[in-house]
Amino acid sequence: MTYEEFLEQIIETGIEGVNKEYEGTSSKQDDKRDGSIAGFEACRNKKPAELISEYAKAMKLQQEAFILRVDNYWWFRCYSAQVEWVLNVVSAGTRTSLLSHLPTAKGTLAAAKILGVESKL
Prior knowledge:
Layout: H1 3-22, H2 30-42, H3 48-68, H4 73-94, H5 105-115
Helix pairs in contact: 1-2, 1-4, 2-4, 3-4, 4-5
């Protein structure tokens, strides 16, 4: 599996999970769903260094939204959370810690599932 295929699988699996998670929820959850999907989409076709830059941008936007108390804060929070998730799984799959706190155990399990080595863990 190439890096590009691996990244695409992370994103597609993530979007599928988001749609399943927010299926049938009230419109109050739209910001969370939409921000999550936007976060995954922002990671498409990006190399690891570009993902790190995207995460820095997402965190800055999230912090500004919190400080300014914008109505759609959760859009920004979910956006940054999904970019971080992609970095987490990519860190595990490439065996390169892209952020100091990554990969996590859950990110490693997700990478193993995508790479087909889940049963060997």
